[in-house]
Design goal:
This protein is mainly α and 501 residues long. 70% of the residues lie in helices and 2% in strands. A hairpin with a 2-residue loop joins strand 1 (464-469) and strand 2 (472-477). The termini are far apart. One of its GO terms (molecular function) is RNA binding.
């Protein structure tokens, strides 16, 4: 800032004090987030210009947008209009973005009306930003209206439309829009692939990635991150390894985000050693990266290693977040370290000032119940804030009930089952109680439970499993014969039975 002011002074002495281009570069410098206390200086410059141009206003509005000074963006927009000036196709997108970031749907509609009044609805830059704003509000009906009003559609228009539909969970309309797009660039392919993955359609995401491989398009980092997420959820290690080799083949240097996605895939596919090697090789790490590695160790029962890694994280001065502590509680729960878990719970609240969320309560309840500390677990459930939804509270009671089944604690299980039935009509409650009564030879209670299930028309949700063979994920649903090789599988099983007996 000291040097900027010197340059500004020199510009004035050279006769460039009112040169709009020179002033716009000075204001642009002030917009950078890492230049502290520079925004007031930029506003001061603009205030002293006798006849500011649209360019100067646009630069200052953009500066406020980048610095998250959203109200100031609107004040400048208002000042521009009061000076008898008209916004252009740079001003309006900045203001529309400010509406989206402020989550002000009403303001967005008012600016949309201004766009219509000034005839900018036919400008692709303004139109695309309008679509983006409406999609961020989840209003795809209005976004589609803007799209249909635009005389021409560029690849950005199609990408925003596809991503918007995917964001609200309407992956069918997203796919229709993808199929209708006349030109499919990397952004459009990336939007449909990430859309499938975000909506838990992991196999479909992999299929789209394979289709993209038949084109000349080279995947970018965002596509690789999405598809690695699909591999992690499906447990498709072979495909994940192939993607890792593909990243190396195209000489794409993994960023923190991409390296974290690779780690997550290897962790969830059971390759902790490979994940830890990637973690150790990373030149820089963020909180998410540490969380993934701690969580990977936790879910594989490596509780002590997870806690040791957390200590290293604290030593590096990386600030843990609420997700970090979920991983820590999981590590304690899976490794039978209930007392350590309670200590970390207190540490999270008192030392790091993180307010517990439902997920934290659920982890602690699971931790205590697994250790047989049912009274303590029940007390924690009763401390869950009233602001939590019934669905979230039900998850806590379900974790408690599951532990009761494992420990054959019938009285606590009955209490948990009653609370769950009040909160939701879930067949899982009846199934757990039925299994519990069956294991304790409580025939009367077992018959009553099954009779209640029939009376309420409750059906057990069929189990589902998947296995990767030769790079192909095969899915099996209990009681169904949907797998195309089911007859062949049955023949093999029958042969095995004959040989065993």
């Amino acid at each position: 800032m000291k040097q900027l002011k010197q340059v500004h002074g020199q510009a004035i002495t050279c006769g460039l004090g009112d040169n709009h281009y020179a002033l716009s570069r000075l204001i642009a410098f002030c917009s950078q987030p890492h230049h502290h206390d520079s925004l007031p200086h930029g506003l001061n410059i603009l205030q002293h210009v006798q006849e500011p141009s649209n360019c100067l206003y646009n630069t200052m509005i953009k500066a406020c947008l980048l610095r998250n000074e959203l109200n100031m963006s609107f004040q400048l927009y208002k000042r521009l209009l009061e000076n008898g000036m008209y916004p252009d196709n740079y001003t309006l997108p900045y203001i529309l973005k400010a509406c989206a970031y402020m989550e002000s749907f009403r303001l967005g509609e008012l600016v949309h009306a201004h766009c219509l009044q000034l005839g900018f609805i036919f400008d692709s830059f303004v139109g695309n930003t309008l679509m983006m704003m409406y999609s961020l509000f989840g209003n795809m009906e209005s976004a589609r209206y803007v799209f249909d009003e635009m005389p021409t559609h560029c690849v950005v228009s199609w990408t925003v439309l596809i991503s918007g539909y995917a964001k609200i969970g309407n992956i069918e309309l997203a796919r229709i829009a993808f199929d209708e797009a006349p030109i499919k660039d990397r952004g459009i392919w990336g939007s449909i692939i990430s859309g499938y993955v975000q909506n838990n359609c992991f196999k479909e995401g992999l299929q789209m990635f394979r289709l993209m491989q038949s084109t000349s398009i080279i995947p970018d980092e965002a596509i690789f991150v999405s598809i690695l997420g699909a591999c992690a959820h499906l447990g498709t290690l072979e495909i994940g390894i192939w993607i890792h080799k593909r990243i190396d083949a195209i000489k794409l240097r993994p960023s923190v985000k991409l390296a974290t996605a690779l780690m997550d895939m290897y962790c969830k596919c059971g390759k902790l050693d490979v994940a830890h090697k990637l973690f150790d090789e990373m030149p820089e790490r963020d909180t998410i990266c540490w969380n993934v590695m701690i969580s990977g160790l936790a879910i594989h029962g490596e509780g002590l290693r997870a806690l040791k890694l957390f200590s290293q994280m604290e030593m590096t001065k990386i600030q843990p977040d609420d997700v970090t502590f979920i991983a820590i509680f999981t590590a304690c729960s899976y490794s039978g370290m209930e007392h350590e878990g309670l200590k970390f719970f207190n540490k999270m609240c008192k030392e790091y000032n993180i307010n517990p969320k439902t997920e934290h309560y659920i982890c602690i309840i699971d931790l205590l119940a697994r250790a047989g500390l049912f009274n303590e677990a029940k007390d924690i459930i009763n401390k869950i804030p009233d602001s939590c939804s019934p669905k979230e509270v039900a998850v806590a009671w379900r974790a408690f009930l599951s532990a009761c089944e494992s420990h054959k604690e019938i009285e606590f299980a009955k209490m948990a089952a009653e609370r769950l039935m009040e909160l939701e009509n879930d067949s899982g409650v009846y199934v757990i109680m039925s299994n519990l009564y069956s294991s304790t030879n409580d025939v009367d209670s077992l018959q009553k439970t099954r009779k209640m299930m029939r009376a309420r028309g409750v059906d057990k949700v069929p189990g589902c499993s998947s296995i990767e063979v030769g790079g192909v994920v095969n899915e099996f649903v209990a009681g169904e014969k949907t797998n195309y090789k089911i007859e062949e599988i049955h023949e093999v099983l029958e042969n095995m039975n004959r040989q065993m007996y």
